[in-house]
Amino acid sequence: MANLMNPPSTIIFIAACALSISATAQNSTQNSVTASCPLPAQVEPVHLYGLWRAEFTGLAQGATLLFEKHAERTGSVRGAINRNGTRALIAGDVDGGEFTLEESDDGVHISATWLGTVVKDSCGQEIRGSWSHAASDRAYPFVLRKLAANAPRQ
After folding, report:
1. Which helix (H) or strand (E) holds 48?
2. Model's pTM, two decimal places?
3. What is the Cα–Cα distance from 24 to 67, expressed in whole angstroms?
4. pLDDT digits 0-9 by tens, 29-77
5. By CB neighbour count within 10 A (0-12 exposed, 13-18 middle, 19+ buried), where does 116 fall?
């Protein structure tokens, strides 16, 4: 019975198959990393869900925010902010990498506004901008960072 493939041809064939599988696996890995790490313009409200920590330049006290799906407004978030036990309601959205949020101490009137942008290369995990308090009419730079899902609440 004749051998259809001689040893050198077999080695070349095996090497070609291995290279093709390796290239496919590498492309698949790169695509999954890209899909799990959105660009700022790709960040949607669903990426905001969860706990975040805010730090303000010029203010000694930070805050913890919880974003959840907004029941009445598709494409928006709502939740609460906690500053050492003082709580307020929040509602806002992110569109094209631009972040807007309104804060209300009484659930009726806007007590503060947040305007910011999703930080490049943060995978939607960091937002920087300006927080403006309505009563004092003062603005403070803020950094908002998403907390790990299993991190203790602060």
Report:
1. helix 45-48
2. 0.74
3. 38
4. 344 344 589 999 999 999 999 999 999 999 999 999 999 999 999 899 9
5. buried
Q: Give every CB contact of residue 15 below 8 A, 6+ residues apart in sequence.
A: none
Q: In CATH, what number is assigned to the domain containing residue 77?
A: 2.40.128.120
In angstroms, the CA 114 to CA 139 distance is 9
Report whether 59 contacts 144 (CB < 8 A).
Answer: no
How far apart, in whole angstroms, are the C-alpha atoms of residue 25 and residue 19?
A: 10
The secondary structure of 62-112 as a DSSP string is -EEEEEEE-SSSTT-EEEEEEETTEEEEEEEEEETTEEEEEEESSSSS--E
Do residues 131 and 83 both lie within one domain? yes
Place of tokens 């299993």: 150
**In the block, residue with structure tokens 């700022």:** 40
Beta bridge partners of 88: 81
Residue span of the structural domain in which 67 resides: 40-146
Q: Of all helices (H) and strands (E), which one includes residue 129?
A: strand 126-133
